[in-house]
Design a protein that fits this description.
- The chain is an all-beta fold.
- Helices cover 3% and strands 43% of the residues.
- The two termini are 24 Å apart.
Amino acid sequence: MAQRIIQTHFCLALILCGGLISISSSAQDAPALFPIIENGKPGFIDQTGKVMIQPNTNWFSTMPLEGKHFVEGLEPAETRWRPGMTNGLKWGYLNTEGKFAIAPQFTLTTPFSEGLAAVRERFYGYIDHTGKFVIQPQFEEAFGFSEGLAQVDDTNHLMGFIDRSGKWVIKPRFRALSRHSNFSEGLACVPTNDVTMKYPFESGANPQFKWGYINKKGEQVIDFRFDEANAFSEGLAAVSENVKADDVDKKTGEHLTPPPFSKGGYIDKTGKYVIPPQFDSVWNFSEGLARVRVAGQTMDEVPEQMKFINTQGKIVFTVTNGEWADEFSEGLANVSIRKGVGEEIWGYINHSGEFVIKPQFQRAEPFYHGLAQVIVDNKLAYIDKSGRYVWKQP
């Protein structure tokens, strides 16, 4: 828990907003820049560790520290308060020189995707790289574009999808929830719109939505039957649903299928299970591997085991004392281990499950453009794939 508090402290320094969204081809022309903090001041370095945008007190990035920055060459940023300021804090976009390419004028900004970015005035609309509104503000919530479509929420708390002209391609009819749905490999997972669940939900209520998949025409292609559903990745989607518990053993009274009775597996684009529901937790495939959790069968066993499977469902390796892991990126996956009641520590494994950068960090993020962000000795740092420090917070 302490490690996550440390990371949260750093992230809040750059004011959180939005999730990661898809990058258009124009982003390939922008240099890879990585956020740093020196004496409470944000700046950016390049892949060699050279400071490209000096730490300053003029603005905050609106993105969390971890993840991808300067998507399509522009970075959401907020002006910092100064004495005499009368119009409040505003958000705009920095270029890779650290100057505002789109002047601060919005109440909230999100990263660019496929040439457009969702920004908020009173409502959300979309601007282009010049800061001009291409889609006028009209949405209660708006997210990044993926495969030509973006999820937006109307003022009735229903969500649908628009194209880059702002035209409704899939009219709002699904209940708007805190999580959003991007199209991936031609499909998007969406929740049922149970009209009996009136918005706002009653205090203390825990509405249970079922999830299914639609195509870009809004047609239901996979029924609403899943308790949890993720975007398609490498032809498969990680889903969970209730499975029928086998009859109890007549002698012991125990279920032949151990709880929980909601099990995870992987479906193809027809909704057919390619890997049957058998795991207690499932995550997306990346670089041919996916992380799954398997609960112990008895109290004497390790309560949970972190395993990685291939697209045939075969267990490739188990991470001993594995606590958490992200998806593989650039050939490596950031993984944490915990021995007994000891501290959680992070390192990086290869596709064989071998630690190529030994666990030693308080927190570690996925590799991006050859660098990974880590927390060590309560300080932000960046390492390369050999584990060498490229930059470390003073």
